[in-house]
Amino acid sequence: MNLLKKDQKWEWTVAYDEAFRLLKPFEVQVDASDRALGGVLVQDKHPVALESRKLKDVELRYCTHEKEMTAVGHCLDAWRHYLLGTKFTIVTDNVANTYFKMQQKLPLKQAHWQEFLGEFNFDWVHRPGKHNDVVDALSRKLV
């Protein structure tokens, strides 16, 4: 089927449905260092997109889990066109952030993060830093 030709009728078939169902889920790997943050969008163990940037002056004063959450927010915002409407996994080496969704009382800054994250359908996974080579490198050496 060539939908680029004039007067082509488009039909959704069982084969298309099966191919759509088999799309591999995304994984968002994030990390933050003392000076920068980074992230890798992965699908089927292959990188789809990379992100990194220097921390802003005010962000340099954040504690570790706040820097990690800043990395999450930055990457989700950059890749929202990939992630909205799909279930995905956020991988971080900061175990505290894996409990973020369960918090009842949050400071204002974290409440804003929770509101932003509410747009997405994801699970948190903790993976020790020694197993996050690519994203760790992105957060240390700006790309």
Provide a brief overview of the structure.
The protein is an alpha/beta fold. It contains 5 helices and 5 strands, in the order αβββααβαβα.
Q: Any low-confidence stretches, pLDDT <50, length ≥5?
A: none
Which structural class should the secondary elements be placed in?
alpha/beta
Q: Radius of gyration from the CA trace?
A: 18 Å
Annotated CATH topology:
Nucleotidyltransferase, domain 5
Largest sheet: 5 strands, mixed
- Topology pattern, helix = H, strand = E: HEEEHHEHEH
> Mean pLDDT score, rounded?
84
What multimeric state do the chains show? single chain
What's the CATH class, please?
Alpha Beta
- The order of strands across the largest sheet is 3-2-1-4-5
Roughly how much helix do the residues carry, as a percent range?
Answer: 25-40%
Number of helix segments?
5
What is the molecular shape?
A: elongated
CATH superfamily: Ribonuclease H-like superfamily/Ribonuclease H
Give the DSSP E fraction (strand runs of 2 or more residues). 25-35%
Structure description:
This protein is α/β, with parallel strands linked by helices. The chain is built from 5 helices and 5 strands; from the N terminus they run αβββααβαβα. The protein has a 5-stranded mixed β-sheet, with helices on both faces. The longest helix is centred in the middle third of the chain and has 15 residues, at 64-78. It comes from Sesamum angustifolium. GO terms for molecular function: endonuclease activity; hydrolase activity; RNA-directed DNA polymerase activity. This is Reverse transcriptase RNase H-like domain-containing protein. Keywords: Endonuclease, Hydrolase, Nuclease, Nucleotidyltransferase, RNA-directed DNA polymerase, Transferase.
